[in-house]
């Protein structure tokens, strides 16, 4: 039903084809991914589904994210202090007027009511997750057919299917033109021993009299969004959440990937 899922690159290996040929493959841990939000065209302007990947603890998750995922939020620090002060006063002052007791009990009831009704949206408590991403629905599927909290795994991909895989390439830092763009370098003779890997001229003089935008020069290499298109699924293993794809995919082992169904255009 979904057009894509999230996963992590496990590593590369090789398998044998039906005729005994060696096929280099990449093993990807795909899902499980949970539907955390459903967007509709009449309300949000487009149809999409937000999915969560890799559930984590609530220790370092912000309150807005917890509220977005349907969690009942705990009291704020000031509210907790107020409740603690009330409890300490109850223990210390046993002789209090009825009016004072009634006033404090109203504050207590108000704070308890706030703590019970801190859910920003109706529905199940989901996550929290390490990664949240939006994906499209397959053609012919409407948002009404997807429910909040539905879990999707590698079973949405079939053996022999063609997919596109999006990832972040390995960062190589600041590199020169030979490594970054494949330049051949300068001449090695006639006293130019210091020009082996130099870029050479970067433009003409009077016309245009400046360096054109997009000129291939030294700079940061890698750490960019890369899409590997038309990769064949060799094997889909929903029981172990694994997907075996022919060829290499961008990124290092353990890197985050988005596996998308290839759409013929």
TrEMBL record:
Coiled coil: none annotated. One of its GO terms (cellular component) is cytosolic large ribosomal subunit. One of its GO terms (molecular function) is rRNA binding. It comes from the Bacteria. Keywords: Ribonucleoprotein, Ribosomal protein, RNA-binding, rRNA-binding. One of its GO terms (biological process) is translation. One of the primary rRNA binding proteins, it binds directly near the 3'-end of the 23S rRNA, where it nucleates assembly of the 50S subunit. Part of the 50S ribosomal subunit. Forms a cluster with proteins L14 and L19. HAMAP family: Ribosomal_uL3_B (MF_01325_B). Belongs to the universal ribosomal protein uL3 family. This is Large ribosomal subunit protein uL3. It comes from Thermosporothrix hazakensis. The gene is rplC.
């Amino acid at each position: 039903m979904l057009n894509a899922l999230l996963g992590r690159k496990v590593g590369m290996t090789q398998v044998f084809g039906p005729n005994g040929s060696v096929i280099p493959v990449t093993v990807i841990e795909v899902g499980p991914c949970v539907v955390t939000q459903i967007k509709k065209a009449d309300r949000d302007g487009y149809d999409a589904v937000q999915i969560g990947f890799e559930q984590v603890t609530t220790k370092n998750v912000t309150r807005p994210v917890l509220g977005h995922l349907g969690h009942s939020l705990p009291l704020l620090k000031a509210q907790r202090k107020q409740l603690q002060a009330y409890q300490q006063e109850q223990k210390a002052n046993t002789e209090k007027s009825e009016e004072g007791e009634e006033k404090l009990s109203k504050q207590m009831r108000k704070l308890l009511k706030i703590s019970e009704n801190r859910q920003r949206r109706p529905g199940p408590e989901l996550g929290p997750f390490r990664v949240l991403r939006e994906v499209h629905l397959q053609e012919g599927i409407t948002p009404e057919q997807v429910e909040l909290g539905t879990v999707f795994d590698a079973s949405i991909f079939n053996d022999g299917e063609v997919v596109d895989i999006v990832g972040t390439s390995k960062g190589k830092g600041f590199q020169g033109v030979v490594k970054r763009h494949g330049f051949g370098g300068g001449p090695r003779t006639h006293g130019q021993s210091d020009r082996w890997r130099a870029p050479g001229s970067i433009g003409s003089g009077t016309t245009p009299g400046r360096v054109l935008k997009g000129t291939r020069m030294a700079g940061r290499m890698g750490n960019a969004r890369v899409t590997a298109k038309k990769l064949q699924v060799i094997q889909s293993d929903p029981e172990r959440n694994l997907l075996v794809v022919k060829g290499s995919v961008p990124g290092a082992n353990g890197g985050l990937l988005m596996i998308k169904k290839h759409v013929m255009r």
